[in-house]
Amino acid sequence: MRTLRDNNWIEEKEIKREGKGRPMKVYSLKAGIDAIIKHFEEEKLNESAQAMESIQRLKQLIAT
């Protein structure tokens, strides 16, 4: 939820309940699901590329 909020992808509304207790929160998407999935996909691809780059550097160190 934090990532969704940080990227302004969701809208949050509070609905008061009858009686005591905290209000209920209702969330709805402001961005399309395709855009959200693409963001996470790109994030993981970047992480993977960085890991592969580190592995290649290690291989080069071992070879020398």
What descriptors fit this protein?
alpha+beta; 56% helix; 2 domains; 64 residues; elongated; 2 helices
Which spans of ≥5 residues are poorly predicted at pLDDT below 50?
none
Strand order of the largest sheet: 1-2
Structure class = alpha+beta
Q: What is the makeup of the main sheet?
A: 2 strands, antiparallel
Count of discrete alpha- or pi-helical segments spanning 4 or more residues: 2
Mean pLDDT: 93
Gross morphology: elongated
- How many β-strands, per DSSP? 2
| End-to-end distance | 46 Å
Q: How big a fraction of the residues is strand?
A: 15-25%
Helix content: 55-70%
Please give the radius of gyration in angstroms.
21 Å
Order of helices and strands: HEEH
Tell me the domain tally.
2
What does this structure look like?
With about 60 residues, this protein is α+β, with helices and mostly antiparallel strands. It has two domains: about 1-30, no CATH class; about 35-64. About 55% of the residues lie in helices and about 20% in strands. It has two helices and two strands; from the N terminus they run H-E-E-H. The protein has helices at about 1-5, 35-64; strands spanning about 10-15, 25-30. It has a two-stranded antiparallel sheet. A hairpin with an 8-residue loop joins strand 1 (about 10-15) and strand 2 (about 25-30). The mean pLDDT is about 95.
